[in-house]
Amino acid sequence: MASELEPEVQAIDRSLLECSAEETAGKWLQATDLTREVYQHLAHSVPKIYCRGPNPFPQKEDMLAQHVLLGPMEWYLCGEDPAFGFPKLEQANKPSHLCGRVFKVGEPTYSCRDCAVDPTCVLCMECFLGSIHRDHRYRMTTSGGGGFCDCGDAEAWKEGPYCQKHELNTSEIEEEEVKTFHKVINMQIDNEYIINILSHREKSDTYYCMLFNDEVHTYEQVIYTLQKAVNCTQKEAIGFATTVDRDGRRSVRYGDFQYCEQAKSVIVRNTSRQTKPLKVQVMHSSIVAHQNFGLKLLSWLGSIIGYSDGLRRILCQVGLQEGPDGENSSLVDRLMLNDSKLWKGARSVYHQLFMSSLLMDLKYKKLFAVRFAKNYQQLQRDFMEDDHERAVSVTALSVQFFTAPTLARMLITEENLMTIIIKTFMDHLRHRDTQGRFQFERYTALQAFKFRRVQSLILDLKYVLISKPTEWSDELRQKFLEGFDAFLELLKCMQGMDPITRQVGQHIEMEPEWEAAFTLQMKLTHVISMMQDWCASDEKVLIEAYKKCLAVLMQCHGGYTDGEQPITLSICGHSVETIRYCVSQEKVSIHLPVSRLLAGLHVLLSKSEVAYKFPELLPLKPHHTRANILTCTNLCLREMFDKDIVMLQTGVSMMDPNHFLMIMLSRFELYQIFSTPDYGKRFSSEITHKSIVIMLNVCIYTLSFLAGERFSPGVGQVNATDEIKREIIHQLSIKPMAHSELVKSLPEDENKETGMESVIEAVAHFKKPGLTGRGMYELKPECAKEFNLYFYHFSRAEQSKAEEAQRKLKRQNREDTALPPPVLPPFCPLFASLVNILQSDVMLCIMGTILQWAVEHNGYAWSESMLQRVLHLIGMALQEEKQHLENVTEEHVVTFAFTQKISKPGEAPKNSPSILAMLETLQNAPYLEIHKDMIRWILKTFNAIKKMRESSPTSPMAETEGTIMEESSRDKDKAERKRKAEIARLRREKIMAQMSEMQRHFIDENKELFQQTLELDASTSAVLDNSPVVSDMTLTALGPMQTQVPEQRQFVTCILCQEEQEVKVESRAMVLAAFVQRSTVLSKNRSKVIQDPEKYDPLFMHPDLSCGTHTSSCGHIMHAHCWQRYFDSVQAKEQRRQQRLRLHTSYDVENGEFLCPLCECLSNTVIPLLLPPRNIFNNRLNFSDQPNLTQWIRTISQQIKALQFLRKEESTPNNASSKNSEKMDELQLPEGFRPDFHPKNPYSESIKEMLTTFGTATYKVGLKVHPNEEDPRVPIMCWGSCAYTIQSIERILSDEDKPLFGPLPCRLDDCLRSLTRFAAAHWTVASLSVVQGHFCKLFASLVPNDGHEDLPCILDIDMFHLLVGMVLAFPALHCQDFSGISLGTGDLHIFHLVTMAHIIQILLTSCTEENGMDQENPSCEEESEVLALYKTLHQYTGSALKEIPSGWHLWRSVRAGIMPFLKCSALFFHYLNGVPSPPDIQVPGTSHFEHLCNYLSLPSNLICLFQENSEIMNSLIESWCLNSEVKRYLEGERDAIRYPRESNKLIDLPEDYSSLINQASNFSCPKSGGDKSRAPTLCLVCGSLLCSQSYCCQTELEGEDVGACTAHTYSCGSGVGIFLRVRECQVLFLAGKTKGCFYSPPYLDDYGETDQGLRRGNPLHLCNERFKKIQKLWHQHSVTEEIGRAQEANQTLAGIDWQHL
Ligand SMILES: [Zn+2]
Ligand SMILES: [Zn+2]
Ligand SMILES: [Zn+2]
Ligand SMILES: [Zn+2]
Ligand SMILES: [Zn+2]
Ligand SMILES: [Zn+2]
Ligand SMILES: [Zn+2]
């Protein structure tokens, strides 16, 4: 089909291209019927451009559309070439002072917490940086797309509404009017056109099958269906699905009607099974074409009005002009009303146009707002039917004008907006019960879905109310109260909805319908408090609202007592009538919004003192509150709960407290207990009802709230600051908290503010965070006295934690552990009578009864917590009385006489002792040990008050203190004894705690230790050498002069069987758990990857170190056989487990991974523990008469020649062994060389096996191939891993300025020692001829011979790898040499040779840039000699080498360049030969150049090496320089690595996190044409930005689909990756395809906390220490291990599909 159409399309292209924009525009200018003319042009051209078969070419379409369609319009508009016309317009433009930048998805937005009128006011980054708010407390979020910058909107900001850029643009003059007037018509045509086309239908020949998106089907479902329906590949289907999701629609098939219809039916059939089917439409191709052009036109208009504000205003006028059909016929109206019929892409285009035109100035914003309000009900109705998210609905625009205070108020007064919103809301919730209340039972899924959508109306209501008026007009009052009526109507439908029966002793399941009712209540909470705020700002409104509210409440509960007989209650001579009510059996509802609103208004009245001015206006009657007494048992939601308490307090303050208490007891079904004498005794035996004890506890608890909670402004004489302070004090009494924890535990207002910052300094100290963890707030000690154990916002768990913490604190301060109630602020006058509840007769009766139960303590149904609560109440009463006495003035009498009342014994018929007497009895009760301190405090306070009353009121304080002093001296001895006992106990506790801590956290501690691998802390590390160091002896690590170390016996213990064993050559093998991994940490060339591992030759490491093999170990030692048994059992267990259910683990058994049995460190093989291997072979100690370098090279060359000859002989067939010996004679074997000799392997079988095991593992992991112990590359990989690991450790030490031989942590020391010795011993298990072959090749790279031709030039060899390889392969040759040359001599000569080659390498590549410090005359020996050497080089390279003027310069670069090599060599020979390091190198300091040279048997003037061996060196240097690659380099045709290589670092991160967000918001997916990436992810190693976690950027890797991050790790980090997920502010570690974890990001807010997921939005700044820590993990190759640990700790991590990230 496509191929058929192709030529046709091409042909049309040409005719279109010939079309001239200027001519067309000219024709239009002369046309009489312009509309017809333009329409004809469009009808002719649009289908040709946009109807081009199945596959759209967006760029081509855009190009043609600009040329043929938009171009003429631009010409017409400007009357000249738009290239000149538009800039002219732009120049003359007086732009709006509003910024109006429309936000892209993921773009950072800023809100000022100090100045924003509400949290919806935001700034773009540019405006923010240019505003005063950057120094204020701001909040940062990433935009979800949509919405625009509010810069310049004076109503949005309390201060600083303009940024620097938008400050000056305040002109409103119109001069474009005349010039652009005639263009109005043109615009109109365009707009008409859009409307016509978008809702146009017609039939003809070609069609598209158009798929639309919905919010029901998943990506996978769509992809699967499409593959079936239109027969496409998975890739194509993914493409379709991605576009549908992004744009809202995509054609999936092109052809005739039948063909498209068929695809449609398949799609519908496939998706209709569970849910409603996907929306598919077969559409005529030219319709689609016109629609596409329509969209293009809209965005074109958007850009055109950007040139001139005049044009923008014209567009607004045209858009709002009423059409021929009257009401609602303007373009804007019609677009809005068609919103839900349009697809996602079309909606967002016209929404954006609205935002950049209508919303850009107040005049049109106002007009538009009116249109919006008029259509409000219809728009909401459409939205309910629509299934798209609110973000793509036109209804979401409400935030743009509802939140503007003047607009909102205008809409309320003129359009009655409040009432409209509430009525619309009510319309959508039609299910009511018989009493007219909302009913959420039996909600279908669809209704539930709609219910969720309806909630956005509450949001609108919130927007409208967000700023309360400063001035009220009569009109506003009237409309607000009308809205308030509607609101009360709504609350009435909620009052008492969803009643439930109280369930004792079991949890109430969250039923879905219950949840719906609950959600509604929660959502309205803020609205209710905003309503109250509005009421509070005007007295008239407040009083009217109060009356209305009261009336509605009466309606709700009017018929409550119908038909019921009142009952009479009486206790202590008080009696009251009430209704019968049984809480345990009857239904209760927690939904009482009307009552709570009334409570809120009541408090406001109290605060504003209106109550006293208009007492006649307040028809307050106590009985209204009765019905609500029970609500306090449902302690669900704080806001509701607080209001309930206030409601009760209101009730009590207006009633006789005795009456109130009796009603309350009766409601709790406790009346009988206190009204009947001795009932308590009976009920303990007869009705042992647990629930009564619970009820009684709750009841007393509630009583303490009523008298004690005075921190709401209006109830007590406090302000909002006191309230928040108290909240914070109680939260911090539980434990020190981080900022975010504290914020979470505090109530937020509608601006999401807690007010915490203003008071926190007064009550808490801030403790900064360390490398891990968060900053913490700690309660100031002086605030502890304000602690109230029965703080009403404590949950039960919090309360007991706080109690424990506070008691502990008191013990630590050696105080008594009583937690008396705090001194409280006085009540407001309206609530003042509340305190009398504490001294009422019924209250005293309750207290007395419970105390009596405690005194007679056996049998009765009392509990300790009950007693504790009663003691607390008594304490409160005493504090109250004391307060009254202290504040009393001359003419007043203190009426609060609690002390007197409790001193009186009970009257007949009870004759019980007085409360005071009972307390004195209880003081000595042995079973009340823990309450003793509290009782003692009560008695002490009682005495103090008594004294105060007795003495004159002028000096009560002194008396009080005197009493306390007296008392304390009496208790002094006792206290001292107690104190000592306490100290002893504390010490004991501490020791016990330490011990158990040590046991329990052994592993944790180790983990700590491992994380600090290189924190060179002496306590966690062993001294490097276990042999005594003789400091005055010169230590030499290698060569004939090697320092002889007495042999050390080494004993180790197996962690598995705990058996101790000596490490010996012939004993069973001991092994270390080890982890081998590929590494690119040192890589200088990340683009290089091993292409074909089967053919790859690793013999020579390139100096770019692009891919190495790293070995690490946790240092834990096991028997080889113990480990084998352990590993087999792990494997068996894992296999069994996988059969049952495939559980993910943090380690991959199939790949040989396991966790160290002791520390759970991830491992994948073991290294055998060995003695220094050289000592085993180097038993000939006659060092006299050793050859010099020249002689040695000749000897070795001869030996190699002999070997090569023999090898050739062997490979030639028909060779008898007898003949062999003849040939040997012929060859003239070098003296003492016996190539037929095969040494005996000294190691035990078990050690040999482990040598093979580790060697094979290194080979397998390093090359990523199947294990093959016979492969000749095995020994090379072993040497390579040894060299690479040493190099990486040398880098870490240098980067941290640590001394080379400082105290290394044990596990590093053990690892390096075992690894080096293993690599040195490995040749004994490999084929001798293979190792000899490797040696010959390595040797030939420096000493050329005929056998080896194409070896790398010396610029392309890493010299340290070469050194290690040669030294470790050499024994294979040397073992056949019986001429008396020692192995040490060989080592020394190899080392010298390689060192000289490295110096040449450095000189050839030395950087020749001048730094102006040239010194003509060499001032020291080294400098003149190095200059001479350089001249020789210059000569050998045929003068290609650049002239270097300064020897000083050269010598410096040689010294600097060779340092890493010398350090690595020192480490290598140290571990190889076991010679202790010289003490000088063990301490940190500057360069240890001389000491290193001494230790390594080198002259400190390295150039001497060349002179001593000039005989052979001159010819070698010449041969190196003649290499063609060296020539190419010197001629500038290729590059080479320079020395010293710089250490790799993670990329530089910006200090301010928002600039990262901004960077990422500009990043678009590289594969889906300019689309914004959803999860932009930054590689911290190389700085690439990737489009992660998305279908668009999945690629195939080794036959599996992987996400962009996983794919990147393979090229950038050989499987290991460190990323920053920018939107989430989260560090991501990946290893392999299956492993990953999240790590805390290096960005902290001012409170020392990270913000993963950017939920809090506090400004974030780079924490360098934490970033360095991540870099260190990378340098130490610990990322994989970190992932393993995280996955072990958190099993859910293993379930995440890491490979798709
Ligand atoms: Zn802006
Ligand atoms: Zn601005
Ligand atoms: Zn500000
Ligand atoms: Zn063992
Ligand atoms: Zn371990
Ligand atoms: Zn990278
Ligand atoms: Zn992508």
Looking at the structure, what is the overall shape? globular
Structural class: alpha+beta
Give average pLDDT, whole number.
80
Main pleated sheet: 5 strands, antiparallel
The number of strands is 27
Low-pLDDT stretches: 1-11, 170-190, 198-203, 503-512, 613-636, 954-970, 999-1032
Kindly, what is the distance between the CA atoms of the first and last residues, rounded to a whole number of angstroms?
Answer: 38 Å
Query: Roughly how many Å is the radius of gyration?
Result: 44 Å
Strand order of the largest sheet: 20-19-23-24-25
Q: Tell me the β content.
A: 5-15%
Helix content: 40-55%
SS field, number of helical segments: 65
Associated small molecules: zinc ion
Overview in brief:
The chain has 1701 residues and is α+β, with helices and mostly antiparallel strands.
3D structure, described in words:
Strand 23 and strand 24 form a beta hairpin. The protein is an alpha+beta fold and 1701 residues long. The two termini are 38 Å apart. It contains 65 helices and 27 strands. The radius of gyration is 44 Å and the shape is globular. The longest helix has 29 residues, at 972-1000. Helix 23 runs antiparallel to helix 24 and helix 50 packs antiparallel against helix 51. Bound molecules: zinc ion (7 copies). One zinc ion binds at residues 99, 127, 151-152, 163, 165-166.
List keywords for this structure.
single chain; globular; E3 ubiquitin-protein ligase; 1701 residues; binds zinc ion; five-stranded antiparallel beta sheet; alpha+beta; disordered N terminus; three-stranded antiparallel beta sheet; 65 helices
